[in-house]
Amino acid sequence: MSRRKRALGFLSLALVAAAAAAAIADGYGSRIASRYGPLRRVVVVATDLRRGRQIGPAEVAAGLTVRRVPARFVPGGALVSPAEALGLVPEASIPAGSYLLADQLRLPRRGGRTVHRLGGGRRPVEISVSGADALLSEGRVAPRARVDVVVTGEPGPLGRGRTYIAAAAVPLLALRQGVEGPGPGATAAATLGLTKGQALRLIAADSFARKVTLLPRR
Prior knowledge:
Elements: H1 3-36, E1 39-45, H2 57-63, E2 64-70, E3 89-90, E4 105-106, E5 109-110, E6 113-114, E7 123-130, H3 133-137, E8 145-153, E9 163-177, E10 187-194, H4 196-208, E11 209-216
Antiparallel strand pairs: 1-2, 3-4, 5-6, 7-10, 8-9, 8-11, 9-10
Helix pairs in contact: 2-4
C-alpha cells in the first residue's frame, strides 16, 4: 500500500472516530439535560472573597468565573454574570469554589449607613487612577462631583498610546490616596458611580491601559 493510501486511510479512521465521539457526547449531554434540566450560567468564586471588602473590577476579572451547570443544581438567587457583583460587599467571607448568590451581597456602608443605589442603574465601583493630586489637594470631594474617566493605552508601533474617554460625566463618590502616598506616578482609589457597561469597559481597559485619569467637570 502506498504512503498516500495509508495517509488517506488514517484520515478516514480519524474522521469516523471524531464523529462517533461527538455522537456519544451529544447523547450523554441529552441524557443529562433530560434528567437534571438544561445547562444554566452561574457565577462561581475563583478566589476567596473577604467579608466587608467591596468587589471591584480586579475582583470581578480575576476572582469570579462563569460555569454552566444543570438547572437542578443551581441555587436560588445565583448570579449569572460577574458584573452583577460590581460595587457590592460580601456579608460574610465566601470561599473559592462557591456559587455567588445575591443574598450574600449588600451595598457598601459608610458611617454606619447603607449607601443607596444610584439612579440610572449605577453602582459604586472603586478603581485605581493616576494624576489625582489636584483633586486630592482640594481636601474633599464635592458630593456627586462629575468627572470624565480617561484611559491611555500602552504605546503602539508608532510610539503613542491611544487616549479616549471610557466613561463620561460619572459621579465621583469618594477619593483617597493610594498606599504609596503622594508623589509622581502615585495612584489614588476613586469610587465612581458606574453603569454596568461603563464598569465592564474599565475592567477591560485595566488589562492594557498605561494609566487611568480623572478629569473634573466644572
